[in-house]
Amino acid sequence: MSSFEFPGEYYEVIRKDFRDLAAETDFLASYLPLGGTVLDLGSATGTNLRALAALGHPGVGVDQSAAFTAHARNAAPAPGAAPVEYVHARTADYTTEQRFDLVYSLFGTLNQLPRAELKQLFADVRDWLAPGGHLVVDIGHLLNFVDGFQPNMIAHHQGDDLLITRLARQSVNPHAAIWRNEETIIARGADGTVAMYANFFDQAVLTSPEIRDLLAAAGLEVVAEYGGFRKEPGPRIGRGPLLFVARVAGAVTA
Predict the structure, then answer these.
(1) What is the mean pLDDT of residues 172-193?
(2) Do 180 and 120 share a structural domain?
(3) Mean of the pLDDT values across residues 197-218?
(4) Is 118 helix (H, G, I), strand (E, B) or coil?
(5) Is the N end or the C end of the chain the one with fewer CB atoms within 10 Å?
(6) CB 218 within 8 A of CB 232
(7) Contacts 24+ apart (CB under 8 A), 31-37
(8) Is the pTM of this model over 0.90?
(9) Domain ranges, residue 183
């Protein structure tokens, strides 16, 4: 379970300190045909979708945060951008008859789902992929959690007119292999006004073999694994991104 009900503009500032949007956009676009359609599972404030829409890729974003979804809907698109629809829903509850050239889930979003829901979600994704389509999954893997564990943390994030401080406490439930992150977010605006929000999320501590097995059980085959959005090799030890690229098993490529 997670709570991300704080202003989307705060998330945008925090996100910039963790992510490389240009690299993510190039990576995702490399799996899309001209005008190909995209589905973002855990779209947050729509950052990735807006970047892809600016390249001519229409899309759908699904996110459980009402605040983030509202921010995404209100964000101005780039001139001439393809249309994007934003759906306020849990990823595991989303249904559609539409088919997509690319389905992706970034920033450890799938770690926030209970393990029991991942099998069905991957089966649904298989049905949502258009012929030749790909799934991209960016997970937080076991070594990420072990190497990055900090019981208490203070971080500062600077925007054009915002100063955000995050006070975070991390804990692990070893019996359920669940990692909890509890945060207090304090933001000061340009006018000196201060706002404070409580934020928490639970993440399943997944391993690479678990993801491979879940994808295979859903009829998806892994065609590539990377350690970052510049298609570098996966990390041998320690923390770092782990990206899976999959397609329908047995699919014929052109």
Answers:
(1) 91
(2) no
(3) 90
(4) helix
(5) C
(6) no
(7) 31/101, 31/102, 31/134, 31/136, 31/245, 32/57, 32/101, 32/102, 33/101, 33/132, 35/82, 36/101, 36/102, 37/98, 37/99, 37/100, 37/101, 37/102, 37/130
(8) yes
(9) 149-203
